[in-house]
Design brief:
The protein is built from four helices and seven strands. The protein has 174 residues and is of the alpha+beta class. The protein has one domain. The longest helix is centred in the last third of the chain and has 26 residues.
């Protein structure tokens, strides 16, 4: 289990290098493909690339008491550290007006023997070729990689809120 400093370090060192071109859909599930790039500690030019999908269920309006029931299907115990952090900081986070269940699937990882800049450039080229508007490249830390992925998910929620609220209002749900 990561200590509080390690969790904070993972959060602070998560950078989205290529953001998805779309937000989380208001009505229906959204599936994002992610490439999480981490440099291996004590190894020169060794980069781990985790490739997978993260699924965001349809947003729901929830009450603050329901934060406790937030589920993270498929995530390990380190992800619970991030959930604990969210619970402690919920009053400061507007993103928690919605409840999302996140699942990660189709996860694979590989270690490449190249500088991180080259790895990221090849990933960008692949995304450009595939023209996938729901792909992302995230740079993070290897030890707390699930924290980095959850930070990315929290940022997706925050960037989607305005559009989602507008959709709810337009349909008379707020």
């Amino acid at each position: 289990m990561l200590n509080e400093d390690a969790v904070q370090y993972a959060i602070e060192n998560t950078r989205v290098l290529h953001a998805p071109q779309r937000n989380i859909a208001t009505f229906g599930q959204t599936t994002f493909r992610f490439y999480l790039v981490t440099e291996l500690m004590d190894s020169v030019n060794q980069v781990r690339v985790r490739d997978g999908r993260i699924h965001a269920d349809r947003p729901q309006i929830i009450t603050p008491g329901q934060y406790q029931s937030m589920l993270l299907d498929g995530f390990g115990e380190r992800a619970e550290d991030f959930v604990d952090w969210l619970r402690e900081n919920a009053p400061q986070l507007a993103v928690m007006k919605y409840g999302f269940q996140f699942r990660k699937t189709d996860l694979s990882d590989r270690v490449l023997h190249s500088p991180v800049e080259e790895v990221v450039a090849r990933l960008r080229e692949g995304i450009d070729r595939s023209e996938d508007p729901l792909s992302a490249i995230i740079e993070g830390v290897d030890e707390g990689w699930e924290i980095c992925l959850l930070k990315f998910a929290a940022d997706l929620i925050q960037s989607s809120i305005g559009e989602n609220l507008g959709d709810f209002r337009h349909r008379g749900l707020l």
